Amino acid sequence: MTEQDICYCYHDSPIGALLLSGSEGCIHALAFPQDGERTLADGRWRMDLGAFAEARRELDAYFEKALQRFTVPYLLKGSPFQLAVWRALSAIPYGTVASYGDIAGRVGKPKGAQAVGMANHANPLPIIVPCHRVIGADGSLVGFGGGLELKTWLLAHEGITPGNICNPGQLGFDF
To answer: What's the whole-model pTM score?
Structure first.
């Protein structure tokens, strides 16, 4: 697959125009607006206004609070460690959070919280692979590619506010 095989479209959302890209109907990446402006697509990509209909439908349902888990087909490319982290992120239930340390333990690297943070930052499909649900061990909202304001918005959208975040290790969910 070459860059010319990738198509893209923009999708309006409550957080701005999302850039969706991928190939053969399979989404590979989602990019947030930057400074209130659309993220520019790679000039080699082909615009397809009808692309990723299922992903767009699921994103709309998520923003309408009618969808809690994405099922749209996607393709993630990364190292084995990144892929393990992204699978773990996908298992964090809607409306809950996990710490970087929780994820590190889940992927078999209990001392790898910082590496989890780096893999989290490299997540090409935020929201769909919910990296916004990862917080600091002390419950603080740390790091997010879309900025902390957007992370706070996404968490609040799911019913999580800084005032109701408990110690993530005490949440008691099995992911």
So the answer is: 0.89
